[in-house]
Amino acid sequence: MALYAELHRHLGGSVVPRVLWRYFQRNRSNLIEHFPGYLDFEDFYTRPRNTLDEYLELHTMVESVQTEATLPYFVYRLMRGAYVFENLAYLELRYTPYLRTPDHLSQSERIEKMSEIVDIVGKASQIGEYPIEMSQILCMHSRLPYEVNRAIVDLAVAHPHYVCAVDLAGGDAHYRDRLDEYVKLYDYARQRGVNTTGHLYETEEGAYPELLPYLMRIGHGIQIPLHYPELLPQLAEQGQCLEVCPTTYLKTGTLDDLQQLKVVFDRCFEAGVDIAICTDNAGLHNVRLPFEYESLLTQDIISFQQLQACQDAAFRHAFAWKYEQRPERILSDILRPEADDDLDLMVGETSTVG
Fold first, then answer.
1. How far from 65 is each of 24, 31, 39, 119, 142, CA to CA, in Å?
2. Is 327 part of a structural domain of the chain?
3. Closest among 185, 167, 205, 192 to 11, alpha carbons compared
4. pTM score
5. Do 237 and 198 form a contact (C-beta atoms < 8 A)?
6. Which of 165, 83, 85, 79 lies closest to 118, judged by CA?
7. Alpha carbon distance 283, 20 (integer Å)
8. Residues 222, 264: contact at Cβ < 8 Å?
9. Which pLDDT score, from 0 to 100, does residue 342 have?
10. What is the CATH number of the domain that holds 111?
11. Is 343 part of a structural domain of the chain?
12. Pairwise CA distance, residues 149 & 196, whole Å
């Protein structure tokens, strides 16, 4: 059985429509009262949007109900589905903890509350019945002030047992006016030993080469091979990996056709730049990771060998994967140790005959 690693999934967009609908029915029926039934809600929740900003507005609906009291409910169902339906052995779940704190509190009180949110998500993810490793990526946000984003980095420093990296989210078209601030924050994170990724080069407005030196991975980054291929050797030299989320680009209007990703994969493979295939917002898309794999294969965007290389890259670039091997190999060593002994014997017999 193949087991996978998912490096780019948002907590806000990870709740599948049916789970969210049931929660609203039981607890917040006012949020769905204008939908005649579930299918109408699912269509609204998962349909493509015209722009990335319009798409990101959907996150606010989910963020408003992901509170201290409800996060265990959502995280448990997310983890269960990831293991049972997606064969995930490893998951990095990203979100902005500040946006899960009560909005009636002062900024300083909400900053203090963020630590509780990280602990709640971390404890809720420790599910003994489903052997899946999960770590958190904390997102700084373009809508939040410097003080809050700095506190998010400090939170990552203080919680290495739950947090594996920091990110920058909120739509890459909105970074320009505060670019020096984000450079400073990323530099601070790296100095404190925090791993880094960031939503960058997702859209044509999101080209910020100034941030690239501070990132260990690049969230999306598809505009680099599409429009700035001269940067690819630099990415390869620095060992940076692109977190490519195919369905997202159709849902946000960033790409018109999935076939446009063929250039992304071809140029990255040619330049030696790793790609991890991810879902981004599996709930908003109503799409699971194996479907992303299948879609790219059946449309001849990548070959089977390239798919395997991307799956290997996901484990290799995972911030909190503790093992040198993929889980299938570890399982094989446990379940079939005699196979290695037989192979050694065959090799020995061949060398003797030779």
1. 9, 10, 21, 18, 21
2. no
3. 167
4. 0.89
5. no
6. 165
7. 9
8. yes
9. 54
10. 3.20.20.140
11. no
12. 14
Q: Is the pLDDT of residue 293 over 70?
A: yes
Range of the domain at 10: 4-321
How many domains does the chain divide into? Answer: 1
Q: Is residue 203 part of a domain?
A: yes
Say what the alpha-carbon torsion angle 214, 217, 223, 228 is, to the nearest 10 degrees.
60
Other beta carbons less than 10 A from residue 150's beta carbon: 18
Q: What is the pLDDT of residues 117-171, one digit of tens each?
A: 999 999 999 877 888 999 999 999 999 999 999 999 999 999 999 999 999 999 8
**pLDDT of 112:** 97
Q: Please indicate, yes or no, if residue 354 is contained in any of the structural domains.
A: no
Give 161's DSSP letter.
T
pLDDT in tens, 185-205: 999 999 999 999 999 999 999
If phi > 0 it is left, if psi is from -120 to 50 it is alpha, else beta; for residue 194 that is: beta
pLDDT in tens, 86-97: 999 999 999 999
CA terminus-to-terminus distance, the chain: 36
Residues 6+ apart with CB under 8 A from 191: none
Residue in the structure block whose two tokens are 């140029």: 267
Name the residue with tokens 């002030």: 145
Percent of the chain surpassing pLDDT 70: 92
**Which residue in this structure is represented by tokens 């790609």?**
275
- ∠320-59-32 over CA atoms, to 5°? 130
